[in-house]
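User: Predict the structure for this protein chain, please.
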Amino acid sequence: MVKTKSVKHKKFGTLLGVFIPSVLTILGLIMYLRFGWVIGNVGLGWTLIIVILASSITFITGLSASAIATNMNIGVGGEYYMVSRSLGIELGGAIGIPLYFCRTLSVTFYCFGLAEATLMFWPPDWGPIPTYTVQLIAASIIIIITLVSSKSADFVLKLQIPILILVSLSIIALFAGVFSGPMKSPSFEASYATAPEGFWYVFAVFFPAVTGFTTGIGMSGDLKDSKKSIPKGTLGAILICLIIYLLIPIVLSLSNQLESTQLLDAERGIINWTSVAFLGTALIVPAVLGAILSSALGSILNGPRVLQALSADGLVPKKFSKLSKSGQPTIATWVTGAIALFAVLLGDLNTIAVLVSVLFLTLYITINLSAALEVIVAEPHYRPEIKIPWYISLTGAIGAIAVMLLISPIASVIALTIEIGIYFYLRRRSLEQNWGDVSSGFLLNIAKRALLNHNKRKRNPRNWRPQTLLFVRNINESIQIIKLGAAISENHGVLTICHLVTLDEHSSFDSVENLRIKLQKEVQKYGLDVFCEVNVVQDIRSGTIQVAKAHGIAGLKSNTIMEGVSTTSKGRIGQLIKLKEMEMAGKNIIYAHTNPRIKKYLKNTITIWWRGQDSNADLMLLLAYLIELNRDYQDYKVEILSIVKDHDQVKDLKFYIKSQLSLGRITAKVEVIVSQEHVNTIIKERSKRSKIVMLGLPTLKSGEENTKAKWIEDMSFELATVLFVYNAGMADAVPKLLENES
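Assistant: Here is the predicted structure, written as structure tokens:
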């Protein structure tokens, strides 16, 4: 995690930092362009409904953002900061990176619009306007606002005060012009004359007019008190603009100076205002130019701050989080200006504009989902001053999804594809975060519900799964055994790797937790999805038994204990002694040994030695089947070997083994060997080319410890990989697992 260098700079309050930027972004160019067209197509009544519906989505999103803001100090990055701290760094990055480019491209859009608008002042005697003029003017504007914003956010924000005055005067001028002139009864009839696609098409075209309220949130890192300013400034801006947006269509529809054909012409938006408003062009044109400039200034302030936040969290190079002496993200601002300048060369950006609108809507979706999940999960740390029911925030998210699809289904798919791609890329990078997010609590709640439901059900042998507890000393030295444990449990059960620490080695909880994290990282290097834990015990031998007996939660108890074969005679004897205690606790045992030095001439074969003692063969058969299901072992073949001393026993034993295979729908080669040689000699000779060999551990009788320990040693060190299997906890379960469903 990269930390942004602490630099003292001027902080802003609610009015200058949040309210004015948000109001000016909402009361932007679209306000002047769209209202007449909407009224002409759907009439006054439906226009008001469109305004209320659109503003409801933004108001709910504003409420969700306010709830999150009152629960934490929002750092630099605004919306990105909110999402990343609620849903995690990967989802935050998936939203934040596209958000940055949207803000940056918005600079280009607005500067293009401002450049085109200024051409109304082109003197006729200068001749025709050159084709490249708009691009040159747009580029010049980008350079100027980039230089200004990199030096002082204070100057840029204060520049918006006179712009707000101009916009306010233009609205007052409209009202004054209408009420001082001839008026008529408003039309409530919907004609759809220039919008044959219908009501929802008109809604989708109008919706961008109510967006932009998050501009103030984007200044979060520059606010004196984000908890106070974001809710007041954002919600205040949305409500004030809602009132204005409800009044403007009423006023326009009352004017007798505007014919229906004039309202229906989308290109006459500004002309309609100037023809009706008091002082007309003198007040409307400066306001329009100011509104466009204000939107460009808001984007050039917000974009670099998103890049700064992404840099501080390690998602982009750390140099972008560097601040100037005045506290401005200078490098991030220059980079943003450079990208915006390059976008000028692309020329027509109308196609990209639709994608940008949709990407902004995905931001609204995630803000609402963040607030909803925080309430549902109810983490102890989530105590917002503004409390919003989860279903309200969820309604806002659904509304934003609907608008996305209305605007452009294709752009929606492209936007989601981009964000999903970024998310999985960040997941592969295994980024670290030093804050808690709602995903942990959400997953815990799901796990809790699943365990409760699982615990209510009657245990059925058919539902048995290997819940394996694997004891290891060193991850790298035991990696082959760990991979086998994962093959048995990873896809069809749970594998937990346990490292025991004695009281002498234990220093503090932090040291134990750090060791657990280290183990988890080492395992992840091998691409294994397993759990890791560290337990403090008095001594290793007794600790193994204690942890094995107690391990698990609710109905999800460990049922299989696995560890490597001890390298000492005393250790192997100790492992055998543990068998009885594990049997009493209902735990199966797997002792594993691998010989990395034995590599040549090996076949992808799992050899099971069927000795007919206890239920070990059944369990070995099930383990072999589970291993085969794993991707790394799919080309392995299972063979079952058994030894008899009389030819008369061959037919019956082979029939019995094959019948068991048939019950379990398991394919394996079966061979019964007739021999008078010592069993150990036959096993070693016939298994020497098998990659995995399974041998059953018979029930230990008193006084047999030394003999069995020597047998384990003899079998272990001449074969590639040996699994010594003891069925202590599922003697009745395995046959039922191998049966056909009735």
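The chain has 25 helices and twelve strands.
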